[in-house]
Amino acid sequence: MALEKNENYFELTDDSDRASAIEAQFNEDALEEARRRIAPETSPDFDGKHCIECGEKIPAARLKLGKIRCIDCQSQKEQKTKFFGGLAASPNPPPFRRPPTPDSSLTRVYP
Q1: pTM
Q2: What is the pLDDT of residues 42-73, one digit of tens each?
Q3: DSSP class of 15
Q4: Taking Cα atoms as reference points, which of 31, 34, 67 lies closest to residue 48?
C-alpha cells in the first residue's frame, strides 16, 4: 500500500501497514537527500574553468567531476559546514534552540 508524501499514517488500521508506510517514506526521503547531495553543484557565476570563490583555475580532473570550486575553497566550505553542523549549506537553517538544562533534582550522584 503506497501512501502519498505527508499522508497521515495513523489512518491505517494495521500496525504493520503503518510501520511499512513509515519505513517506505523514510527510505524515499533518504534517497532524495542522497541524490541531492551527489548532484553537481551549479552557480550562475561559474565560467566552466575558474573557481567561483577565488577565481583560480580548476584542474581538468575536478572539472570532469562537475566541481565549481578549487580544492582549497571546497575544503574551506566543507570545514564551515562541518563546524556549523550543516547549517552553512542550508538555505533556510532551523532556528537555534538552547538545549534543556538537566534538572538537579533528577541528577544522581554516585559515591
Answers
A1: 0.46
A2: 888 889 899 999 999 999 999 998 889 999 99
A3: H
A4: 67
